[in-house]
Amino acid sequence: MRAASSLCTALAALALLLWPVVVQADPPRRTQPEQSAQAAPAELRQQVQAVPAQLRQPAPARQAPAPTPTVTVSQAPQALELAVGRSLIVNSDQDIRRISLAAPDAADVLLLSPRQVYLTGKSPGATNLTLWGAGDAVMAVFDLDVSPDQTQLKRMISSVLPNERGIRVITSGKTIILTGSVSSAPSLATALSLAETFAPGKVQNLLSVGGVQQVMLEVRVAEMNRNVLQRFGINFSLTTGGNIVHSMLGGLTTFASGALTPTANVGAIASPNLGGSASLTTFIDALKDNGLVKVLAEPNLICLSGKSASFLAGGEIPIPIPQALGTVAIEYKPFGVGLNFTPIVLESGRISIQVNPEVSELDYSLGVTINSWQIPGLTTRRASTTVELGSGQSFAIAGLIKDSTRESIKKFPGLGDLPVLGALFRSSEFRKNETELVIIVTPHLVKPLDMARQTLPTDGLKDPTPYEFFVAGQLEGKGATAQKPQQLAPAPDGKPSGFDGRFGSALPPAE
């Protein structure tokens, strides 16, 4: 009996050791003896521990295939916008277990409660905010865009430019973008200056200037110059008995080779016969000169608001400039009718103009001679100023009235004071000069003109035939018509609206 009991105990222990091997080989099938061995009492398990180690080694089992990894993509991020210095509260319908902010330099995050997150913008930039719920499940992902505060900039633009309703402010990172339209160039400059105070050097201008921004400037330069010259003088040469007396007052004569030579100022020469060896020659300068000069220049020029334009109708005069080693350089000096101006259309519809008109002409009386080259001088009328006026209004920006009188008497002391005969021993000159100058500017807001209505100075000109030119002496052929006068562009009420000329037409004030 004792031997049978020991044999049963050994068989039970062996069956208990073989049970895991059977389960690994074929998990779905279990036999009744295995279930009995699993339910064995604790004493039996202690006896199994006493079995030698070589009997408890499991048999080699078949390896199970490696599991395939699974990647779960969280939901698409939601966009959140936050201004620097501003705060935002994010509410959740579930309890929040964990929070992550990718860039703490851009924003601060604070968990107020299990379902409320408090965000504060620190500096412009972009980051991500991720929220986890129960079981480490991702609840939400937010793309957080922290931008400069637009509220204060919009408030300042609205306060400084109350009539500019078309300005829009957009931020992208650290950059401020201004879009829309403004009514004038000064408003554009003001809006850009305000934006620069919030983002220095990071302002993008996409604003456009609306309305008519092309300005045509008419300039009229009118000058009248009257001069009167009266001159009388006598030089003489008396020769008698080997005695010679020459008079050279007033530069009427020059003395060379023992004789007097008249200059260009001498108008008459008299040589009466005194008889004998006496000889008398008189050189008379008697002149009365009246002069009248009229100068009228009307340059017109069109320019975009805020830009500069220049105009010159004339030429350039070469001026030699002596250099080292006997070389001569040539410098060109412009002359003629010139105009430079910069218009700015203001918000009120008025026009601010910086204008520099100039009218110059060659004057050989003011010239000099350099190395046998005669260089003429220039008579110039020039003005430079800045004015503000409405479209179609005129301003006399410069004017001059000059009246000068000069009298000169050259005479021999004593002899020149004698009555009647004293005229032979003096030279008199009287000059009077009167000048009147005025410069008028008139700006116009203009738009392009239809070419069908355009007229040119050459319209109506017909070349003469050989008979008309050589025989009849005509400069224009028959059938030539005069240029038609320009018609003013009608306003909506049918009345003339201002200038309509060779360069464009002025808009009515209502436009």
Structure overview:
This protein has 511 residues and is mainly β. 14% of the residues lie in helices and 47% in strands. It has helices at 2-25, 32-38, 42-49, 151-160, 185-198, 466-471, and strands spanning 78-83, 87-91, 98-101, 107-113, 116-121, 125-132, 138-147, 167-172, 175-182, 203-209, 214-240, 243-246, 253-256, 259-262, 268-270, 279-297, 300-304, 309-322, 328-345, 351-370, 373-382, 385-389, 395-411, 426-447, 505-506. Helix 1 (2-25) packs across helix 2, helix 1 crosses helix 3 (42-49) and helix 4 (151-160) runs antiparallel to helix 5 (185-198). The longest helix has 24 residues, at 2-25. It is elongated, with a radius of gyration of 54 Å. Residues 16-56, 69-73 and 485-511 have low confidence and may be disordered.
Short description:
With 511 residues, this protein is mostly beta strands. 14% of the residues lie in helices and 47% in strands.
Q: Can you give keywords for this protein?
A:
disordered C terminus, single chain, mainly beta
Percent of residues in helices comes to 10-25%
Q: Over all CA atoms, what is the radius of gyration?
A: 54 Å
Derived from helix and strand composition plus strand pairing, the structural class reads mainly beta
- Mean residue pLDDT: 77
**How much of the polypeptide forms β-strand, as a percent range?**
over 45%
Gap between N and C termini: 129 Å
Q: How many H/I helices?
A: 6
Unreliable residue runs? 16-56, 69-73, 485-511
Largest sheet: 8 strands, antiparallel
Shape: elongated
Q: Care to count the β-strands? A: 25
Helices and strands in order, then pairings?
Blueprint lengths: L1 H24 L6 H7 L3 H8 L28 E6 L3 E5 L6 E4 L5 E7 L2 E6 L3 E8 L5 E10 L3 H10 L6 E6 L2 E8 L2 H14 L4 E7 L4 E27 L2 E4 L6 E4 L2 E4 L5 E3 L8 E19 L2 E5 L4 E14 L5 E18 L5 E20 L2 E10 L2 E5 L5 E17 L14 E22 L18 H6 L33 E2 L5
Helix pairs in contact: 1-2, 1-3, 4-5
